[in-house]
Amino acid sequence: MRLQSQEHSAARPSIFPREPGPLPPPKEPPRGEGSLPGGVQATSRRRLLRSLMGGSVALTTPERAPHRDPVLTLVHRITQGFNLTEYLRAKTLGYEGYLEEQLDHLAIDDSGMDTRLLKFPTLNLSPKELYDTYIDGNGVPYYEYKGAALLRAVHSKRQLFERMVEFWNDHFSIDQNKGGLEWVFLPEHDRDVIRANALGSFPKMLSSCATGAAMLYYLDNWLNVANAPQANYARELLELHTLGVHGGYNEFDVTEVARCFTGWTLNPHTSSPDYLRGHFDISQHDGGKKLVLGQELGRGPRARSADNSTPQMEAQQVIDITVAHPSTARFIAHKLIRWFLTPAPQQEMIERVAETFTATNGDIKAMLRVILAKENMAWASTVRRPKFRRPFHYMVSLLRAFDANVKDPIGSLIFYLPAMGHMPFDHVQPNGYPDSVESWGTLLLPRWDFSSQLLTPAAGLAHAIPGVVLPNYPALKARLGFSGESDRPGLATRMNARLLGSMLPLHEEEALQGYIDGYAGTFDIQAMFDTLVLAASLPGFQWY
Amino acid sequence: MKNEHDQHQPLEAGFSRRTMLSSSASLAAATLLSGQASAAPRRVVNRPVLVHVFLRGAMDGLTMFPPYGDAQLYNRRPTLGIRPPGETNGALDLDGFFGLAPAAAPLLTPYNNGHLAVVHASGSDDATRSHFEAFVRMESGDSTLPTGVITTGWIARYLNETTDLATSSLRAIGAGALIPFSLRGASGALPIPNFANFVFPGRPLTAVERQATISEAYGRRAAPVGPAAIDTLAALGLGGVDFDGYVPANGALYPDSGLGRRMRQTATIIKAAIGVEVVTVDVDGWDLHAAQGPIVGNMARLMDELTKTFEAFYIDMLGNLNDYMLVCVSEFGRHAMQNGSAGTDHGHGNAMFVMGGGVNGGQVIADWPGLSPGQLDQGDLVITIDYRDILGEILIDRFGFTNLAPVFPQHNFVDYGITS
Fold it and tell me: How many CB pairs under 8 A join A and B?
């Protein structure tokens, strides 16, 4: 294989139009976590030159200086994967226009998604309805729940919203397999806790999560009773949901929070429509005074009559105390920046987002506007600070890149995720699936395998995975500007730009072209798909 | 070291009693073992494969190995404490003080043969009672740095210190999808969820060229991704080992479960001797705050599956006793006092156990701190034996590795006689 020389690039005259002003220098050294030092600087200039000289590639496609194109980074970061049509639409709307469109998710017509979800009717059922209907066989609601997450990630027009739903589902992670009943609670949790607030109010989401059946069941608070409190939820509320492990609480606070939550259980009245919903049972509540993070709660034996709070309100008071704690603002800010920009956020930026949290009482959109400001997409671009795709994201990105039509996510498709370690809602521990290259970066073979399974042409049509339909071959060839042998030149560039969102750096693109050029036989459908499997397996596409 | 012909014989009852080291003995051992020893690792022919099993979620050592001889156990655990031997659902006796939960009975097979030793009131010094902090603390083997800045695991550093001994580019396997922290920073360590399926996908006609392009591209990427891809390509097929056709020795029967499969594949790869030196196995589900079920419930089921798997592994590997060293740990123990949910909250001191040839087995090693309220640490079992002492001794005696300072920084080692 040829080694790619990049030594001449620095001497090239600048041919950039003066579009985005000088980038604000990051305080920390650029950290291309996926690239060896010096591996990326020259890429975009040469690519631009080539695409201009070649003349065959429309300038609207993103091979034109990807790290100078904040819209491209925005599309990579706030969607569940680059898609050429979506990108071109974002370019038309402009950076601010596309971001604001995605932030105002309810205004986006997603009726196509609604239609797709009609085949998963259990998503709309209450805990009682689910329990009464499926207690003797829960496979349908169990897999519809998982499948809907995958289907929405691929096909929803509300892409930023879905990205936030995924974020909060890890933040408030719940193992669907815990205890045998979680499938009863999760659909309502998804509707009323996560989706109702994913781009709204963090305190509201936290509060509805705390007293909702799914979390009460998962972290055992439904069995937390007076006189012998049980601290599973209390600890994770402080450690994972709000302050963070070094956020300034101690073992005493954990126990006191547990006491405040005694009596929060599941509605036991089988005939009630609220059966198996979150429910406060005062007879199991510890009525004594508590001290949470230095603040007194509860009436205690000598309560003054002026105290209007009821025992049931203590849970909300705990939520209010944790939300108001400065560690919570920083913890949430840090995590959000990590999700969208970089694994190692600067302290200054964390403080800025945390201030927004505090000033807006945890308004998620307000924080996202700070994080997703255009100037941040320069220093945190896909080139300067690429983020490693998690396996779920890898799968969804590949489906979106190819305009796959997922007709049935749970017949076959979703079962490629366990081998990659990332089946939705299967994470046992309450900390959620990790989001780091250290966690995921060594498990590559299942990704290569998935790309191969997805992109294997079966019986002349490219949908080897049942339930997934790829565009037919002529459409794909048209997308790639390929009509015959004479179109081999530049094919790697076009694949990269029109399918992969320009995530392959130049040397990988050239290696891919080398593979294409060296292919001995007729460049037929088999050859094309082998090449696409290879492209999707290259390191560039593992990042975004 | 026991004679070979002793290995299958139950030991005399008199041998299995718990050992308490006097403080003077501990001090003397500490002097011998403190990290000052800096000689280069010496080559050991037939080093065993380290099988590192991590029970995620804080396994309750007071249930799996109940100290029934401490009457305070039943004050802290009025309904959950496993009763003394001879009573209904009572413990199986180990040494007259400690017992074994009935659901963990299969461990008696290696224990009675002298190939399994339990270390009680042990653990790491992490004080947070957070699973995730404790994972990092225990798996890093480093208590000198804040958890947030630690980047490497102790097994990784051990491997990197013994690079000159490697015979294969694939030195360690995390038998799962997520590589454990203990292997972070190792070269030649890969997560492999299913050993039987480690093949390069796609059309054979183009496989060589595709691999060459992948190799070139990943070769330019930094760790962990770049080297992992190169290691993956080098390890494809895992030496041609036939995992699906493997027949365990001695009629050993592994449970039909994910854990059973992983341990069966671990035995297969150890016997195949393809150069893999470490296999890590994670077992989830031990965080039983409610409905702990020590006799028939949740924890009983977990113990049953775990110990049946270990017994099968032990029987399968009877002819390969010196080819492995199994270490089973959990991030911390559980609160001494049971809660109102018939479960236990997070605690501190715990039990760990080791299995294999060369283990001074058939004993529970402990310096028992007691379960009276005044003897507890914030209501939790005190740690009197640092888990690093056990691991350090094993590395020295069974792996011939003495350069412990980079693996467990600034730790003064105490020898508890876990290996012979």
Answer: 182
Q: Which of B57, B128, B339 sits opposite A230 (nearest CB)?
A: B339
Residues of B in contact with A34 (CB under 8 A): 221-222, 225
Write the pLDDT tens digit of every residue in A328-372.
Answer: 999 999 999 999 999 999 999 999 999 999 999 999 999 999 999
Cβ burial B347-366 (10 Å sphere, 16+ → b, else e): bbbbbbbbbbbbbbbbbbbb
Residue A403, Ramachandran bin (φ over 0: left; ψ between -120 and 50: alpha; else beta) = left
d(CA A118, CA A447): 30
Subunit contact A537:B224, Cβ cutoff 8 A: no
Question: For residues B413 and B37, is the Cβ–Cβ distance under 8 A?
Answer: no
State pLDDT tens for residues B304-335.
999 999 999 999 999 999 999 999 999 999 99
Is the separation of the CB atoms in B278 and B173 below 8 Å?
yes
pLDDT at B125: 92
Nearest to B329 by CA among B36, B98, B147, B124: B124
- CB contacts of B232 in chain A (<8 Å) are 444-445
Query: B179: which chain A residues are within 8 Å (Cβ-Cβ)?
Result: 439, 442-443
Task: Answer yes or no: do A452 and B226 touch at CB < 8 A.
Answer: no
CA closest to B58 among chain A residues = A429
Amino acid identity of B379?
Answer: G
Please state, in angstroms and as integers, the Cα–Cα distance from residue A295 to each residue in A80, A300, A318, A322, following that order.
42, 14, 9, 11
pLDDT band at residue A306 under the 50/70/90 scheme: low
Phi, psi (degrees; rounded to nearest 5) at A290 = -130, 160
Q: Do B339 and A229 touch (CB under 8 A)?
A: yes
| Lowest mean per-residue pLDDT among A60-64, A125-129, B287-291 | A60-64
Residue A297 has pLDDT above 50, yes or no: yes
Task: Share the mean pLDDT of chain B.
Answer: 91
- Please give the residue of chain A at the shortest CA–CA distance from B185: A438
Q: Please write the tens of the pLDDT for every residue from A429-472.
A: 999 999 999 999 999 999 999 999 999 876 555 458 999 999 88
Q: Could you give the CA distance from residue A391 to residue A401 in angstroms, rounded to a whole number?
A: 15
Helix (H) or strand (E) holding B118: strand B116-123
B132, B289, B338 member nearest A232 (Cβ)? B289
Task: Note whether A213 and A276 are within 8 A (CB).
Answer: yes
Residues A235-246, mean pLDDT to the nearest whole number:
98
pLDDT of residue B34: 40
**Using CB atoms, which residue from B201, B210, B340 is nearest to A227?**
B340
Which chain A residues are Cβ-neighbours of B209 within 8 angstroms?
515, 518-519
CB of A122 less than 8 A from some CB of B: no
| Chain B residue nearest residue A527, CA to CA | B206
Query: Do A287 and A274 contact (CB within 8 A), yes or no?
Result: no
Q: Give the tens place of pLDDT for each residue, A132-172.
A: 999 999 999 999 999 999 999 999 999 999 999 999 999 99
Contacts of B238 in chain A (CB under 8 A): none
What pLDDT, on the 0 to 100 scale, is given for residue A10? 34
ipTM confidence:
0.89
Q: Which of A227, A150, A101, A34 is nearest to A397 (CA)?
A: A150
Q: What is the C-alpha to C-alpha distance for residues B246 and B261, in angstroms, rounded to an integer?
A: 11
**A435 contact B CB<8A:** no
Q: Find the helix or strand (DSSP H, E) in which B258 lies.
A: helix B258-272
Among candidates A453, A530, A542 on the partner chain, residue whose Cβ is nearest the Cβ of B210: A530
pLDDT of residue A457: 77
**Band of the pLDDT at A64, cuts 50, 70, 90?**
very low
Q: Is B108 helix (H, G, I), strand (E, B) or coil?
A: helix
Name the residue among A421, A431, A512 with its Cβ closest to that of B132: A431
Contact between chains at A508 and B217 (C-beta distance less than 8 A): yes
